[in-house]
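Changelog-adjacent note: as of this version, every example in the card shows the full chain rather than a window. The one below runs 194 residues end to end.
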Amino acid sequence: MSSAPAAAGRKKGTWTSVQIMTSADGRSSLTFVLGGARSGKSRHAETLVAALPPPWIYVATAEPLDDEMAARIAAHKGRRDHRWRTIEAPRDLAGALTSAAAGVPILIDCLTLWLSNLMLAGADPDAETLRFEAALRDAAGPVIAVANEVGLGIVPDNALARRFRDAAGRLNQRLAARADRVVLLVAGIPLTVK
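Full-length structure tokens:
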């Protein structure tokens, strides 16, 4: 026999806009979307946000430090129309969240680049994560956060890469624990984790 979600007329792994907007206790919700490189996580997160009434906020953490990254950023921007407001926040996610208008859906893409930016700038990722988590708690609208799952590969061969991989794993665990929903993208297919 079919499960309750199918009986309710929705596909497994999909949510209504009301479910994306609020958590079970009525506060603004957090949806955490993660996956490997080129897994479709950003496009999936954009689809979740676009199911909500505009306007929408896109918090971008990438910096165009080379031509290849500039091209990636341009491709992401090309998918967004006038209903999106972009906030460039390579290191200050807490500030970006607190500056958002009440009730406006927020997409953060991506936490992994944010972590990398912090580490390369010599900032304290643990302190910045605490600031970010406090801002998430007080978010005035639903938040959909994107991150890379970096722990499925081989152990990196240098200390910085190992520190980064470990820090990304801890950050992902913290976000997944507090998220209302967690989706893992594999080869473009969303798998509901939580």
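Structural remarks: The longest strand covers residues 30-35.
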